[in-house]
Amino acid sequence: MIRLYNTLTRKIEDFKPIRKGRVGLYTCGPTVYNFAHIGNLRTYIFEDILRRTLEYSGYNVTHVMNITDVGHLTSDADAGEDKLEKGAKREGKTVWDIARFYTRAFLKDIRALNIKRAQNIVPATSAIREQIAVIKKLFAGGFAYETPEAVYFDVSKFRNYTKLSRQRLEEKKAGARAEVIEDPGKKHPQDFALWFKRVGKFKNHVMHWNSPWGDGFPGWHIECSAISTSRLGQPFDIHTGGVDHIAVHHTNEIAQSEGAFKKPLARFWMHGEFLLVADSKMAKSAGTFLTLQELEKKGFNPLAFRYLVLTSHYRSKLNFTWESLRAAEHSLERVRSFIKTLLSERKKPKHPVSLEKYRSQFDDALKSDLQTPQALSVLWKIISDYNTQSESFDAKKILALLYDFDQVLGLHFTAIKKDAIPETIRDMAMKREVARRNKDWDKADKFRAKIETAGFVIFDTPDGSKLRKKQ
Ligand code: AMP
Ligand code: ZN
Fold first, then answer.
1. Which fold has domain 3-272?
2. What is the rounded CA–CA span in Å between residue 465 and residue 450?
3. Of 28, 66, 111, 406, which sits with the fewest C-beta atoms within 10 Å of its C-beta?
4. Residue 199 alpha carbon to ligand 2 centre in Å
5. What residue spans define the domains of the chain?
6. Which atom of ligand 1 lies nearest, measured to the CA of 43?
7. pTM for this one?
């Protein structure tokens, strides 16, 4: 049984899918006005581990993700500039070019991190009809009202509006007041926009569509309500995102979807904690953030970042430092070299030890709310046990087990190849062997030295001498 922490109940609960054997999973996708930063990518890695754990446990997962390509505003409080228009101005491109370019960049990042792509990736601009349909339902249910500037969700009409964040409504009010949009028709400061009309400060808004409330564009939150429910049904199993989405975005998604369809939106709400830099949240809007490209430019393998993320539990904050990334890369390199050792191992013990205990520990770790640090420690236990008693292990079986683990870890273990040993080196090793047999130790040592200078090591085992590339 998989057990997962549900933000809605603040408890770790047994996971039971709504439909046998199937899981509907929704992930809030990127806002494509800039590159994703490695904090965002940490959240997508957590969501990937969740999906892979479900698949590893035999579920058929339907994964849906939106792409926020309608420029929502730089502030959650319906005020501020349009993010995409800001990006377009910065780069002298159209908003459509900006969205296309950064969507591609995002897909490239997730490929480099071996994050499985959602089967349905839905740009908000391609789901305007669905968004309008939800807003219409909200009108019909008395949850929405219109002003000359916009259409709002009336939070006073929705019972238990703050059930996810468990904030008091007054706290939200205080938060909103600082930058609240000055629409005199708005009933409560916490009310949030469902549709903006192309009037006033938005009269030149570049992206716009027709709607029953006039020409304009949707508010940010409505796209996720519309896209999730239209693709997965309502309720669906698991909704995910970063912790910053709890208080505003997910709270509003719940109000919209549950207001419109009178049933819960999702059974489980799961949130990934922040990646910090120098102890504060890495944020796009602060303008100082690290991208995967920057890590690669410094010579890091993107999978080293994936490994680093797996070393901490998704509900703990993770402070990013270059040293920790270096350490992660080093660890990953050691695992890779262990796999190479297994690939070159030929001998087969008669009575190899069973690997079942490792498999079940790995399984238990992931099924206990995705404890990736514990899952990695099982991997390290295998390495240390093998190194101390390699004669009791069947290398091929360990390899098969590690490939199996990699279905969840996603560290590309199956792509690791044996180090190729050039013919000239093999030839020298043969000559050394002949010299040894003739007890010509001087000559044998010379060949060993030559082999080592060429970057290889030769070591003698009871089954003869073996060659390996130097690490
Ligand atoms: P955005 O593109 O801003 O909508 O964010 C994409 C995802 O990254 C969302 O799930 C956010 O909650 C998450 N996120 C934003 N900042 C961070 C951070 N510093 N660490 C981890 N996740 C984050
Ligand atoms: Zn969302």
1. Rossmann fold (3.40.50)
2. 15
3. 111
4. 26
5. 3-272, 292-415, 423-469
6. 22
7. 0.89
